[in-house]
Amino acid sequence: MPFVLDNSVVSGCFLADQATLHTQGIAQRLLDDAAWVPAIWELETTNVLRSACLRQRLDAQRALQVLAHLAQLPIEVDRHPVPRSELPLATRDKALAAAALAAGVGVVPGG
Asked: What number is the average pLDDT over the span 17-44?
């Protein structure tokens, strides 16, 4: 089943200190399921990669590899201003998960 993907989960797929069983599970799930992201996700991901390079947690070559890998995954960018897809959210951000639940949006378990 498709789901909405938050950058906090994606970061755990390429930054070792942010990896969890949840991020690994979501990475595995992306082998079979499509994920949707808001348009800002592209900017967020680029910013995380840039910051990781500046902090010497990744080098530029590895950042480019991450971008190439992400481009191969079934991640769809939703460019509609107010999406109402009713898909569950995969996030490690506890405040975002709480807000999603309060708004009646499902959350992918494990975070």
From this structure: 94
Taking each helix axis from N to C end, the angle separating 60-72 and 7-14, rounded to the nearest 10 degrees, works out to: 120
Query: pLDDT tens for residues 59-71?
Result: 999 999 999 999 9
SS3 assignment, position 24 = helix
Rounded Cα gap, residues 51 and 45, in angstroms: 10
Above 70 in pLDDT, residue 82?
no
- Count of residues making up the chain: 111
Q: Report the Cα 104 to chain-centroid distance in Å.
A: 20
Greatest Cα-to-Cα distance within the chain, rounded to the nearest angstrom:
41
**DSSP string covering 39-83:** THHHHHHHHHHHHHHHTTSS-HHHHHHHHHHHHHS-EEEE--SS-
How large is the average pLDDT for residues 9-26? 94
Q: Which helix H or strand E contains 38, and what residues bound it? A: strand 35-38
